[in-house]
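Many introductory courses stop at the sequence. We go one step further.
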Amino acid sequence: MAGESVSASLRSRAFSSLMLASTAFHDSAATGELLSRLSADAEALQRVVTTHALNGLRGVIMVGGCSLAMVSLSPKLCLVSFATFPAAVLLSRHMGKRIKARQRAVQEALAAAAAEAHSALLNVRTLRLFAAERLASERYDERVRAARDEAATAGLYAAAVESGVGLAMQSSLLSVLAVGGQQVLDGALSYGELSSFFMYTLFLGFNAGNIATAYAELRRAAGASERVLALIGRPPPLTGSGTLPDCRGEFAFENLRFAYPTRPAETILDGLSLRVRQGERVAVIGQSGSGKSTLISLLTGLYEPAGGRHIAEIWPRLALYELAGGRVWDLD
């Protein structure tokens, strides 16, 4: 239930953030990639919350209890059993960073595959007209193989963490048998105490393995959820007052400069000045690509200019993006 709640909350908040994102953001982001963030990325975090986080918490509690019992039986032998732990911790931290990076790459590759599939399915008629179905399949297969390779690398790193912890625990058991046996021969420890200590060490090793697995999965989830959390953390570009004041019906562009975010080197408007007063009718005429539609996009707040001044007084002090004018950009 907790995992479902977390996943639902993430998806809802991420979608709300997408709805408030700027037009420039949507121009540069593929729809399939955004859908991947809403689905695959949120699902990766859900798996950790429902399974691995609980196993890790249970492992921490059991390790703490076993450690206290071992200290009460023989502090010296307890130090011997914990001698290999620092190496296991260092290995886990080192590999954890790599797991996170690789899982982030996995999610990016899956997003690229989703974007490729969305584009192909959206334009399937065009692909058939040009007999390009096989090419589209090859491109999608390439993206899927990239995700598979990254996932395999992340799996190897996770296996290295678990193997390292397992090796540390096996070394700890051998050390306990060697040192504990000598203590029994010296009369410092009884057979029953050694047997109890050995059993506690076994329990500790088992739960330490659970902690290692949970840690590896948490690092995977951290890498997988970075993109969706970054999406949620994006501040909305515009805020409105929510009230429509009286209209004055006037706007002006002064020395306006603009280029689309996806084509920053291609200037659409350069030094444009235009004022339309209340009651005037103005026709903007030009060839295709000269910026006629761009003027409307700037007026309605879909984009922000790169320079110049834009004063919209159709609805003063209310962003046209939210049924509002009155936006003032002064970028010089």
